[in-house]
Amino acid sequence: MSYIQLEQEGYVGILTVNRPKALNALNSEVLSELESVLDNLDTDAIRVLIITGAGDKSFVAGADIAEMSTLSKEEGEEFGRLGNRAFRKVEVLPIPVIAAVNGFALGGGNELAMSCDIRICAENAVFGQPEVGLGITPGFGGTQRLARLVSPGYAKQLVYTAKNIKAPEALRIGLVNAVYPQAELMGAAKKLAAAIADAAPIAVRASKKAINEGLEQPMDVAIETEAKAFGSCFESEDQRAGMKAFLSKEKHPPYQNR
Ligand code: CAA
């Protein structure tokens, strides 16, 4: 893999989009590599994934404008499908994914961050959907996920104006959970990942699935989704050990993912 790097530290995977010459812009090759890495990720060994961009200037500066500049309608649609397929894989990955946004998260970059479960960013981060300024719509989920994450009115303003926002504004509208000095961003992401990795993996995964599926369902169906997720955790070794430790007033043992 040349454009996507994957490292593992304990239970935490760190996936880096590595195309710094183009501010980590996503061409077809980068997207295909991303899909392939996600398809082959060992989600038993890795309990939490952090996604970031190479360098200290850009998370991902969007889809590759040079590649898109000559596409036909049909090719444009296919390119959109490729990005959407890759980002949906991030979204439905069984384990939680944290976006550590270390700079520009524009167009496809913001869309990649929005496919993650949690977003934190550096003080220099810039977010936006500049597509209409280029004569296209957001194409890797931006017309869908932004309005679900922040208010529909704010999402529409960002998309229609193509204007970028900085980290404090992203924090204010709830697009990111926290802002850190650049030098502290990865440490904060790893600390957050470690806290998640310390919890019972079966329960964390079931929670992710229930939250994601439930958001798309009417409440009466959603609470049934929750009942199934809740029930699925019982009789697991980790559930027994976790509750036994609580009742014995001890810290829970390291969870075994069983
Ligand atoms: N596609 C292709 N190349 C890109 C790129 C992109 N999205 N973003 C940056 N680059 C390239 C630049 O062309 C430049 O390459 P050269 O050195 O070969 O000229 C290199 O990265 C460095 O970029 P800049 O010189 O422009 O750096 P800067 O610091 O002056 O500006 C920036 C940084 C504001 C992020 C600017 O690069 C920029 O505006 N980039 C485009 C952002 C954008 O519009 N993204 C949305 C793309 S459309 C999309 O994503 C569609 C979708 O929904 C799927």
Overall mean pLDDT score?
97
Number of structural units classed as domains: 2
First and last CA, distance = 32 Å
Unreliably modeled segments: none
* Biggest sheet layout: 6 strands, mixed
Based on helices, strands and strand pairing, what is the structural class? alpha/beta
- Architecture of the largest domain, according to CATH? Alpha-Beta Complex
Helix content: 40-55%
Number of helices: 11
**CATH top level of the largest domain?**
Alpha Beta
- Write down the overall geometry: globular
N-to-C series of helices and strands: EEHEEHHEEHEEHHEHEHHHH
Looking at the structure, the CATH topology of the largest domain is 2-enoyl-CoA Hydratase, Chain A, domain 1
Number of strands: 10
The neighbouring-strand order within the major sheet is: 1-2-3-5-7-10
The unique ligands bound to this protein are: acetoacetyl-coenzyme A
Superfamily (CATH H level) name of the largest domain = 2-enoyl-CoA Hydratase, Chain A, domain 1
Description of the structure:
There is one protein chain. The protein has helices at 28-39, 65-68, 73-91, 108-115, 142-149, 152-161, 167-172, 182-198, 201-215, 219-233, 237-247, and strands at 4-9, 12-17, 48-53, 58-60, 97-101, 104-106, 118-122, 126-128, 165-166, 178-180. It has 258 residues and is α/β, with parallel strands linked by helices. It folds into two domains: 4-197, 2-enoyl-CoA Hydratase, Chain A, domain 1; 201-247, Lyase 2-enoyl-coa Hydratase, Chain  A, domain 2, CATH 1.10.12. Helix 1 links the parallel strand 2 and strand 3 (48-53). The longest helix has 19 residues, at 73-91. The two termini are 32 Å apart. The chain binds acetoacetyl-coenzyme A (CAA). Acetoacetyl-coenzyme A binds at residues 22-23, 25, 61-66, 83, 104, 106-108, 111, 130-131, 134, 138-140, 142.
